[in-house]
Amino acid sequence: MPHAPVLIVGAGPTGLVLALWLTRQGVPVRIIDKAAGPGTASRAMAVQARTLELYRQLDLADAVVASGHTIPAIHLWTTGQRRATLSFGSAGQDLTPYAFLLVYPQDQHERLLVARLQALGVGVEWRTECLGFEDQGERIVAQLRLPDGSEQACAAPYLAGCDGARSVVRHQIGAGFPGGTYDKIFYVADVDARGPAATNGQAHIALDHADFAAWLPYDNQGRGRLIGVVGDERAQRAESLAFDDVGHSAIASVGLQVRAVHWFSTYRVHHRVTDHYRRGRAFLVGDAAHVHSPAGGQGMNTGIGDAINLAWKLAAVLQHGAPDALLDSYEAERRAFALKLVETTDRLFSFVTADGSFADFMRTRIAPLLVPLASGAGAVREYAFRMVSQTMISYHDGPLAAGQAGAVRSGDRLPWVRTADNHGPLADIAWQVHVYGDAPGELAAWCTSQGIALHRFPFGPAHEAVGLARGAAYLLRPDSYVACADPQARCAVLQAYLERHLGAGTRRS
Description:
RIFMO-like, FAD/NAD-bd_sf, eight-stranded mixed β-sheet, D-Amino Acid Oxidase, Chain A, domain 2, FAD binding, six-stranded mixed β-sheet, oxidoreductase activity, acting on paired donors, with incorporation or reduction of molecular oxygen, NAD(P)H as one donor, and incorporation of one atom of oxygen, globular, FAD, Glutaredoxin, alpha+beta, FAD/NAD(P)-binding domain
């Protein structure tokens, strides 16, 4: 019977990133997908700063940025007037090396990930479908349909369902998918357009009476993605609609003139989070675990975050002898974030698409007064950037959090120091310790005994500004979140943390 430590069902961005992270950590994988090959539609477009930071650990960030289009700002329009601008550069330049929104069509994104995985010696098995599986306690045995129509059993210690909103894996484990479906219907269109808004390389969101449109450019030449809402009177025949059938008032209000439509589709938006991310040896990842409105471009990035969170924990168990209980923290950390995300995007989506004269009044009269005031405040701009870029994600309340040093708490993403680029060492996907300032002599010996790299940085005003404490020890997880923070850099504290969560005598690298 074919065997792989991790069987990955689904080769979209989530499944591919999970395969890449596991492979980089030395865990063999088998990745299958019932499709004939990578996607051919642009679908998810936005790649957020936090995803690029994690891609940097895979040596992928530069290639993704070079292939995509960087958007430095988003402009908000109502009734034909520009009301506010969120500049990513001014809001995020001290937070991340990637202070912009990146537009990178999903079909191109998938092809790049597939190529990188092939370069590591792992090929996606296309036209291979998971029909079901049995969790036998010590392993999972999955039944696969191969490209020639024959069936094959495959054994694996763990299975990851990255197979989308209609997940076979989710149905198999009996996990619920509570939530609902919005009444509104969205449309998406890849177009060529002209006008100042089409060629300045920036994003535009327009709110008009009973209409909404968002423009995400692919370049500075007028190629881009339009997203909007289908009017209620047309929603009943959404499947037969063409671009000419949907409302264009919001599009016209920003001066966009559509010259050609290359792709057009409509779809309903769901908001759901599964009640179980794990059942025995099977896990749900990405859209198999959560779906929500496209507000903020969060969906694909959240799936990629799921994959990386799960990958290092699977590697710790399979490669380094960590207890299976470590894998329970995957659901605890990622489901909590998904619930917050669905709540946030639900509120934003409902505000943008609500019907009625009061809703129109709030969107076109009140919002234009409040948004410029809010966006003019530096703290508000930074908060908005942190939220959209996913650099705000933390696991403070998760089961792996322990300690605080300075303003940095365990569960935080390691703050980036612009003048020192302390994220550079994170390219080594492994546990490591960072100290900013002088480190106790015994700490280096302890790190050596544990197989953990120790990185020392001179302490200065830039480190203090981001909340790091002089002389403290920050034990970092392989996904660059702070596992344990100790102001006195005590080896005993770090040792106790590792033994509690990874097990006594567990190898760290």
